Amino acid sequence: MSQSPATSLQDIVGHAKEYGFVFPSSEIYDGLQAVYDYGQNGVELKNNLKAVWWKAMTQLNDNIVGIDASIFMHPLTWKASGHVDGFSDPMIDNKDSKKRYRADQLLEAKAEQYEADGQPEKAQALLAEMGRLLSAENLEAVRELIIAENIKCAVSGTANWTEVRQFNLMFSTQVGSVAEDSSLIYLRPETAQGIFVNFLNVQKSGRMKVPFGIAQIGKAFRNEIVARQFTFRMREFEQMEMQFFIRPGTEMDWYNKWKEARMKFHVAIGLPAESLKFHDHEKLAHYANAAVDIEYKFPFGFREMEGIHSRTDFDLRNHQELSKKKLQYFDADLDENGKPYGNYIPYVVETSVGADRLFLATFCNAYTKETVGEGDSEKERTYLKLHPALAPFKVAVLPLVKKDGLAEKAQAITNSLKSAFRTTYDDGAAIGKRYTRQDLIGTPFCVVVDYQTMEDDTVTIRHRDSMKQERVAISALKEKIGYEVSIERILEAI
Fold first, then answer.
1. Is 351 found in the same domain as 224?
2. 63 is in an annotated binding site
3. What positions does the entry give for ATP binding (predicted)?
């Protein structure tokens, strides 16, 4: 058995569509750029990932609770958060191809090229200079840096660049029944602000004590000018965020704790440690005093999958100032002098992972091609090596043939397992083809009903990854398979 060459993004996109994981949105109308629909298997995998994240946050931590805030928020929310004035990307156009690029991504790609060429110092120097210029909002110098690095358009092959300009990424719409009386509001560009404006509601109603966290899973929207790389960068996407409220001065301890906890999560769901790394931000967001990304090695290179940020008291303080409502916490615990800490605006450490990026990383990691057999019997095998708890279907029940009562027996077994975990029944085509169908969507176990089943109530379980088979009593199936496919296996590893 040997592994096939490295997976390409084209392999991933093709497999995702063919086997019901991800479809281009509105495809019958030629699609809509950077918008995708999750198919019947994709939605199961994505929901399983969200369920694991939610339980890891709210079930394993006594001091973290969840909310579900609305997508529409008062427009002053985005003024306080800084999005109205500062939520933009530096864009640059090539005059010959008319193609638009993000200036920072052009420079980051050049830095990656330096890394690949064995010049890490040059890569780091370029990223540091880019960070300095963007922080200073010196867009003309950013353009000059692109030209100095001899960065050319991939389409035209020229360096005939326009000036660098900032484009705000928020989608806007109107609320109100009469156009003249309508008010401008925004589709939220992140889910975090729904947590911040509900900070006191949750704290008081839940009698929460600092430190505590609020978790949320929800849709967000960004008018990405350069949207690419499948579901990695989309205009409509889903975030899984947790804001952890802490006493000022303790933020770096909690920042480092959450860094390690989040890396442990990704390994627990099956992402290999060697395909993950931390990447500290060269340029900090306006709200942060420390920031790091957890990057995964996608087919197109290491890219951000999750961000951990020390947001200070930026958000709560700005909301307090603009709303004129106190967003403070009274801390009755005693300091080193034996006095209560008293009232303060908490600091925040944020963990924010894209559900779509986590889906893509999980899918890329699971996609496996290998050569099995030898000589004339050698063939290529493709399957999704998903953690059993994440697989869309946990088990497929397959009658060896459809006659002699085997099909009826298999259907009865299917019905007995459905209440415990997602089960499918398949009696079409030869047994080998049915194994392949389940491999291609990542089903970890196939239960085969044969003639011996009719004699002793035992079945064969075929394991997806090893293709090994074992004989098991029907009465033991629910417990045996249930143990393997339980989210509990992942939570134990966290």
1. yes
2. no
3. 222-224, 232-237, 354-357
Instruction: Confirm if 82 and 209 have CB atoms less than 8 A apart.
Output: no
DSSP string across 348-375: EEEEEEEHHHHHHHHHHHHEEEEEES-G
102 annotated as a binding-site residue: yes
Confidence of residue 147 (pLDDT cuts 50, 70, 90): very high
The verdict on whether residue 111 carries a ligand-binding annotation is no
Nearest CA among 268, 287, 264 for reference residue 278: 264
Determine whether the annotation assigns residue 196 to a binding site.
Answer: no
The answer to whether the annotation marks 354 as part of a ligand binding site is yes
356 annotated ligand binder:
yes
Tens-digit pLDDT profile for residues 218-240:
999 988 766 678 989 899 999 99
Note the pLDDT tens digit of each residue in 371-386: 887 777 788 899 999 9
> Is 355 annotated as a binding-site member?
yes
Q: Which of 213-217, 401-405, 436-440 has the lowest mean pLDDT?
A: 401-405
The confidence band for 98, taking pLDDT boundaries of 50, 70 and 90, is: confident
CATH of the domain at 273: 3.30.930.10
**Which residues does 13 contact at the CB level (< 8 Å), separation at least 6?**
22, 230
- Residues in CB range of 127: below 8 A, 6 or more apart: 107, 108, 111, 282
- Total domain count for the chain? 2
Q: Is 443 annotated as a binding residue?
A: no
Question: Binding site annotation covers 239?
Answer: yes
The reply to whether 162 sits in an annotated binding site is no
Q: Is 351 annotated as a binding residue?
A: yes
Same domain? 65 vs 208? yes
- pTM, entire model: 0.85
Q: How far is residue 465 from each of residues 25, 361, 399, 443, measured CA to CA in Å?
A: 32, 19, 21, 10
Residue 464 near residue 393, CB atoms below 8 Å: no
235 in a known ligand binding site: yes
- Of 321, 287, 311, 325, whose CA–CA distance to 204 is shortest? 325
311 is in an annotated binding site: no
Closest CA to 391 of 283, 223, 474, 269: 269
Sign of the CA dihedral 52, 54, 57, 63?
Answer: negative
Q: What is the pLDDT of residues 5-38, one digit of tens each?
A: 568 899 999 999 999 999 999 999 988 888 999 9
Q: Are residues 288 and 328 in the same domain?
A: yes
Q: Find out whether 380 is annotated in a ligand binding site.
A: no
485 labelled binding-site residue? no
Is residue 177 predicted with pLDDT exceeding 70? no
The model's pLDDT over 263-288, given as tens digits with 9 standing for 90+, comes to: 999 999 999 999 999 999 877 776 77
